[in-house]
Amino acid sequence: MVTADDLNIVYEDNHIIAVVKPVNVPTQEDESKDTDMLRLIKDYLIKKYDKKGDAYVGLVHRLDRPTGGIMIFAKTSKAASRLSESIKNGEFEKKYLAVVVGEPRISTDRLTHYLKKNPSKNIVSVVPMLTEGAKFAELDYKTLEVKGGYSLVSVRLHTGRSHQIRVQMATIGHPLYGDQKYGNDERSKNKQLALWATEVRFPHPVEGKMMMFRVYPPTDKAPWKAFNINSYLNIDINNA
After folding, report:
1. Catalytic-role residue among 64, 140, 179, 185
2. Which of 79, 81, 212, 219 falls 20 to 30 Å from 202 in CA-CA distance?
3. CA dist., res. 145 & res. 234, Å (int)
4. Tens digits of per-residue pLDDT, 146-161?
């Protein structure tokens, strides 16, 4: 079980904290009641600063449970409000690395769909634009490397819909490695989903300067170890 002592803190100041979310840890409490990121960070702050009682942690964006990678949390309500405003204004950039089945016919492309979530089944579907409850979804992807029937792709999200990358890539015929919900790849059945939040870029909520944090997936584990991840450490994955 993950504890506050296990957290990989990338950066911390008086207003924000950047941390690597481990795979299969919920962002916030869900029906499983498993330890979640909000609780872990609160425990970390309480211990580090010897706080009496609870600690404030503001959740401004989310990652799906099976997705690992960089997350930003607010340490004050002021920072939380301003970060949320940055997200609404499109100033909070999120980029991912993923391994998908097959090789996309178009190596670099922008995908636009309308998505609707079925909360009871926790399934997201592509639907016609005028469908009630449909939400616009947009992303850019770029194929970086192809090996063994799989492709390493970079993804930049322009919207933050539930399961967005998984659904949109599956819709063009390239579901993610290990995706049991939206794919049917036998070779990666029962494997860990290959989706990693690799980079965030945003204006600091108080100081205003641009902040950028980049973390990379576990290169010693499948399927990441099949690709030369290190060669992309300094790439610009602004796919537009």
Report:
1. 64
2. 219
3. 15
4. 999 999 999 999 999 9
